[in-house]
Amino acid sequence: MKIYTSERMKLIEAAANEKGYAYLDMMEKAGIACADEVYRRINLDSKKIAVICGKGKNGGDGFVVARRLKELGCQAISVILVGGIPSAEDSVTMFSRMPSIPVFVSEQPEAESRINGADIIIDAVFGFGFKGEPDEATAEIFRSINASDAKTVAIDLPSGAECDTAKVCKDCIRADLTLAISCRKPAHVLNPANKYCGKVITVDIGLDNEAVSEEFFTFTDKPVPVLPKREENAHKGDFGKVLSICGSMKYPGAAVLAATGAVKIGAGLVFAAFPEKAYPAVASKLTEPVMLPLPCCEDGFFSRGALEKLVPEIEKADTVLIGCGLGQTLGTASVFEEALATCKGNVVIDADGINLLSTNINIPEAIKGRAVITPHPGEMARLVGLTAEQVNNNRLALTKAVAREYGIVVVLKGANTVVSDGVRTYVNRTGNPGMARGGCGDLLAGMAAGLLAQGFEPFESAVAAVYLHGKVGDEAAKRLSVHGMTPTDMAAILPELLSDYEQ
User: Fold this and answer.
1) Are the C-beta atoms of residues 37 and 178 closer than 8 Å to each other?
2) The predicted structure's pLDDT at residue 210
């Protein structure tokens, strides 16, 4: 499924307009399509309907909805104007076309009583151009709508939700049903706005969404490539070698979970390189990987002396995973930079690896192979010089921009993880709050590295790893609870899920 931003929708509408599809006709068709959908899905017999309309184009859609519902036989319809009479040209036209339907300005006492007494509320106040916070009078209307017992239907977006960032205002309308005009937008699938949409239905108004096809985002229910059949005479070398350079004496679990992710996803050989002082903690938890305890400093972080044994292993690996629990000492920075310079194949960079990238490393020069980076919002913020809040407010566009600038695959973690290679962008729909705990990212990085080593392309590997990571998290939550589940539990369940994706 494709997800279009507000800017892209404007271009699609403009392209249609240039071909003779007038904006007024688009509004007419959108309003009729939405009204027909409401009529099909909701029993409107003897129901009191309040259509709440703003001054802009979304309000114009609402006027058409009111007119169409009247034509379909609904009698108890009221239209409430938020902020006064319409100002957008096409909305003024649609307002003039309404039949004899009672109209009230939101400041009138009768308007509030119509909202409170409604069985169905149609929200047509703000469209995809909304940003920020509404004025207090409008916010009061939103509070009345949310406090009512009516079934609320939002036209295109719940009013108070920002289309592209998925931010919501304090009193954003909570819809039971949202009718996405022509296509879904980011707010329909990203947190927190998607929690305000209720059920989302797309209504077709005849736009050619492929007219401007290079800018869109996708999500799908099962974005995992079929895992290739393993031949009878296959051997471990056929399924790739992962070298995991992760962990420290302070963070031994990162080394364990990263290597485990690569093993459980099916990599043929996994080498776990970690500071030798972490050996007791790491070796007691790992069975399948080859152990590479390497020289470290007194505090248990890699020292430059690790490079003598590390560099030959990097040269032999199909995929290098580096960064999880690594630390940011001078020794680890030296090891990290040399490892990147040596790696000519696939590399997955996570956690402290990303933090080290963000210091003073020229990323295009540093990364010689095909790279996937997996930052959380704080790490992305350090990488691009923004705050974590700014990153979260622009997740889709920022992920795509960073991927495009550096020629890498970026996995921006969090609720609705975003994956982009600069051209394609995927929004994940699996996962739950139980995964918001230390170690989950290490497991994900290992899974991505394991898929890369088996021959999948970087974007496909990242998307599949993110989806499966969330899917196994959902299964762990179902079996164990969101409070009690752990990344180790997820790793144990992962092999069961893979059977659904094998030939």
Assistant:
1) no
2) 81
The verdict on 163 and 20 lying in the same domain is yes
pLDDT digits (tens, 9 = 90+) for 314-354: 999 999 999 999 999 999 999 999 999 999 999 999 999 99
- Residue-wise pLDDT tens digits, 264-277: 999 999 999 999 99
Same domain, 257 and 152: no
In a domain, 271, yes or no: yes
Please say whether the beta carbons of 256 and 248 come within 8 A. Answer: no
* pLDDT tens digits, one per residue of 53-98: 999 999 999 999 999 999 999 999 999 999 899 999 999 999 999 9
Alpha-carbon 103 to chain mean position: 40
Total number of domains in the chain: 2
Q: Domain with 46 in it: what CATH number?
A: 3.40.50.10260
- pTM for the structure as a whole: 0.86
Is there a single domain that holds both residue 332 and residue 371? yes
- Residue 28's Cβ-count burial label (10 Å; 0-12, 13-18, 19+) is buried
How far is residue 431 from each of residues 108, 206, 414, 500, measured CA to CA in Å? 45, 34, 9, 18
Give yes or no for residue 241 having a pLDDT over 60: yes
Residues 69 and 178 in one domain: yes
Tell me if 352 is assigned to some domain.
yes
Which domain covers residue 115, as residue numbers? 2-211
Among 192, 211, 230, the domain-final residue is 211
Distance CA 280, CA 259 (A): 16
User: What are 60's two structure tokens?
Assistant: 């114009």
Q: Give the whole-number percent of the chain exceeding pLDDT 70.
A: 98
Q: Cβ atoms within 10 A of the Cβ of 8, count?
A: 21
Q: Does 151 lie in the same domain as 80? A: yes
**Claim to verify: residue 251 and residue 152 sit in the same structural domain:** no
Question: For residues 326, 331, 337 and 341, what is the CA-based torsion angle, rounded to 10 degrees?
Answer: -110
- Determine contact, residues 106/81, Cβ cutoff 8 Å: yes
- Specify the pLDDT at position 366: 85
Cβ atoms of 372 and 379 within 8 Å: the answer is no
**Which amino acid, 277?**
K
Quick one: 338 and 453 in the same domain? yes
